[in-house]
Design a protein that fits this description.
With 362 residues, the chain is α+β, with helices and mostly antiparallel strands. It is built from eight helices and 20 strands. It folds into two domains: 2-228, P-loop containing nucleotide triphosphate hydrolases (Rossmann fold), CATH 3.40.50.300; 236-357, OB fold (Dihydrolipoamide Acetyltransferase, E2P) (Beta Barrel). The strands form four sheets. It has a six-stranded mixed beta sheet, sandwiched between helices.
């Protein structure tokens, strides 16, 4: 059973195609994210799902029923915006009860449902507080509670963490996932922040230029990207350009533009002479002070800098061609601490070296 389905949805604004032939199925009770850079069409798609825009063609279904001709106020979807849009002149309880009052619910029902939803978001007893008395994270939860008290089929969240400071944003990623489990309601989340999408989502659609590049679990997107765009956009990657020197099908030898060569794994056929891009994650690279390395994939360089960030610390290595390569610091060898200007050798496995035809990363 899918709470939300989009079938070949297209949206044009004059000569501009903002959304091009997009299809997706969102299972009931799941957390589904649409991830992409600014201007890729993700907000336009959400506005069509909410009913604020009409598709040029295609179909949108909620609980199996087409809603293309249904006005926004009659669709059982609710939306949380980046700036929350809570009413400052109302207290918390009045904010949450607003939609119920518009529906004509009785006073006793309103009080009971407001109390229940506050318990479920972990903020019991705050109904009489003013919005200005709440922290940023609490206001975020109240905005969600105001929607969830109306029991929507799908909750749409349009970059709701964008206005929060970094530490609160990190905490709210976990809280949002817990709230989604608590309500067992389908969440459709729009973001340009890959960390938000990977941490919270059951499935993610990566959008680029109005189209979906790939739909899959966060693990699939990270470890098995379907295109150069996904490989470069989801997570951190080192990227090199080059040309295929030879290919045996699954793997190909690539001569890098800056000198040297590597063996890369390709998920699509390539031939000698093809222009390609090669991607390697920082955590896939082993760093050693210059010693002989028995692997087909190795590059020499000089340490350019050390970036301390706790468990996420990185070593910056300047390659022979002048390019900057990021390596996870925990992979540095033991013994004396690494220092800038140290000569090092980087090695990485063929299976962790992903290649794509050049142009798929646009």
């Amino acid at each position: 059973m899918f709470d939300l389905e989009c079938h070949n949805v297209v949206k044009r604004f004059g000569p501009l195609t903002a959304v091009s032939d997009v299809s997706l199925n969102v299972p009931s009770g799941s957390f589904f994210s649409i991830l992409g850079p600014s201007g890729c069409g993700k907000t336009t798609l959400m506005r069509m799902i909410a009913g604020f825009e009409t598709p040029t063609s295609g179909d949108i279904r909620l609980k199996g029923k087409s809603v293309v001709t249904v006005p926004p106020n009659r669709r059982n979807v609710k939306m949380v915006f980046q700036h929350l849009a809570l009413f400052p002149m109302m207290n918390v309880g009045e904010n949450i009860a607003y939609g119920l009052r518009c529906r004509g619910a009785g006073r006793a029902e309103i009080e009971e449902r407001v109390r229940n939803v506050l318990d479920r978001i972990g903020l019991p007893g705050v109904a009489n507080k003013q919005v200005a008395q709440l922290s940023g994270g609490q206001r975020q939860r109240i905005a969600i509670a105001r929607c969830m008290v109306l029991e929507p089929d799908v909750l749409l969240l349009d970059e709701p963490l964008g206005a929060l400071d970094l530490k609160l944003r990190e905490r709210m990623k976990i809280e949002l996932k817990m709230l989604q489990n608590q309500f067992d309601t389908t969440f459709l989340y729009i973001t340009h922040d890959q960390s938000e999408a990977l941490v919270m989502s059951d499935n993610v659609a990566v959008m680029n230029g109005g189209r979906f590049e790939q739909i899959g679990t966060p693990q699939d997107l990270y470890h098995k990207p379907a295109s150069g765009f996904v490989a470069g956009f989801v997570g951190d990657s080192n990227r090199w350009s080059g040309k295929v020197a030879s290919s045996d099908g699954a793997t190909s030898k690539v001569d890098l533009d800056g000198g040297g060569s590597v063996v890369a794994t390709f998920s699509m056929p390539v031939s000698a002479g093809d222009a390609v891009e090669v991607f390697v994650r920082p955590e896939a690279i082993t760093l050693k002070r210059n010693t002989a390395v028995e692997t087909a994939n190795s590059l020499e360089g000089t340490i350019d800098g050390l970036l301390f960030n706790g468990a996420n610390s990185r070593v910056l290595v300047r390659g022979a061609a002048g390019d900057l390569i990021e390596v996870d610091a925990p992979h540095a060898d033991g013994g004396e601490p690494l220092q800038p200007r140290d000569k090092v050798t980087l090695s990485f496995a063929h299976a962790r070296t992903l290649g794509f035809p050049r142009g798929t990363q646009s």
